[in-house]
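Sequence in, structure out.
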Amino acid sequence: MTSMSAPAAAPARTLPPVVSLQHISKSFSNGTVALRDMTLSVGAGEFMSLLGPSGCGKSTVLRIIAGLGAPTTGRIDWPENGDTSEGEVDHDISFVFQEPTLMPWSTVFGNVHLPLKLKGHSKRAARDRVMDALRMVGLEKFEHAYPRELSGGMKMRVSIARALVTKPKLLLMDEPFAALDEITRFKLNNDLLDLWQRFGFTVIFVTHSVFESVYLSNRIVVMAARPGRVVEDIEVEAPYPRGDAFRTSQTYNDYCRTASAALHGAMDSADHL
């Protein structure tokens, strides 16, 4: 591998895009410019992290892709569907938020069943799919448990199972492990990578952590704030599966230095505006 003393240049993309943001800007009524002229294409099957300081618009990007907010200017292209979305369209997307956002009055099964219920699938008709999703995250024995009976890590597993039960093509994750202890976070990082490799969905993962972004991703997009924009696009050319050996390798350390330098550069560019 070449020297990692400076941020890597954006690699040539050969994967067909799942979604493309074309010159997206987002301003709020209080005058805050969350994003300005952001163009970004996400390839099918990528595990892409959005890395940046607080307030750089990472979560805003996810919400716009998910249809939870509209850009002020620009457009979103979904090449596989051959359309440019400006309204509510189902693009096989699931969203995992920072908090598990589980219904406390419902069981684990009921929480995972919810997306299918909203599509008109009864518990009986959806049972096999719900149990498959729970098996994916190792919670098949907890279908009758309630959220109050679960640890923080188990609640997040339920949230991930709920996102995967619809078999999405694109999984959006907004700092899902930020509130967890380090041991649980590492375990869920590994579990997430295993699911991604097995099922081949595309992931856009928001994080503040250089270390997490390098461990998980094959691509890191670094954003700066005020206004939110892409400043670096780093390809992580390290093989999967990844584990403890990768975390202690020189390759991992080199990429962490590269991503850290890019992040500090992004923070400096924001401070100078």
